[in-house]
Design goal:
CATH class of the largest domain: Mainly Alpha
Strand content: under 5%
Number of domains: 2
């Protein structure tokens, strides 16, 4: 890195700590649920340490680390993809390509607030249903069986609920910018 006299280990650790929130958010864009993020970040820290000699300048750390997090996240995604509710790799690639390099903490907080507000507006049973695929390992088929529905009818219901949630979030965000 820039200053070879400095202890590169502590410098790398500082960079990783400084950018860990952004790296976690980046992994979350790729992964279909939050459960594997800790594993991805732990694996990424090991790879970053092992490849530390590749990093030439401090200001290159975030893009360089994002490539590592991206590769590890996609590896985890491939293991997790069990049902149709997980976006395919091509779509996630397109989303990532359109993502701005840096998303402000304020914007993240606004979006999260809008999501929580809109989830709060849903009836309890609908809120549980829309969150169930992200909390359970047995996927939509298992949820359908537990709720005495066919998987197809559950997919359609989830699709309608997600569309309603997206409209609500967009309205909340639009209202908060006025």
């Amino acid at each position: 890195m820039d200053d070879p006299a400095r202890d590169t280990g502590s410098q790398l650790l500082q960079l990783f700590a400084r950018h860990s929130r952004e790296l976690r958010a980046y992994a979350r864009l790729i992964l279909p649920s939050v459960e594997p993020i800790d594993d991805v970040m732990q694996e990424a820290s090991v790879v970053i340490w092992e490849k530390r000699e590749q990093l030439r300048h401090e200001e290159e750390f975030l893009p360089w680390a994002k490539v590592i997090v991206r590769n590890i996240s996609f590896r985890h995604r491939r293991r997790m993809v069990k049902d149709r509710l997980v976006f395919d790799d091509e779509l996630v690639d397109r989303i990532l390509a359109e993502e701005k390099e840096e998303v402000s903490d304020q914007q993240c907080a606004r979006e999260y607030g809008a999501l929580m507000s809109c989830l709060g507006k849903l009836p309890e049973d609908r809120r549980r249903l829309i969150l169930a695929p992200y909390r359970r390992d047995d996927g939509v088929k298992g949820i359908a069986e537990a709720s005495n529905r066919t998987p197809n009818s559950l997919y359609k219901l989830l699709q309608r609920l997600r569309a309603k949630l997206i409209k609500c979030i967009e309205a909340e965000l639009k209202q908060s910018t006025l």
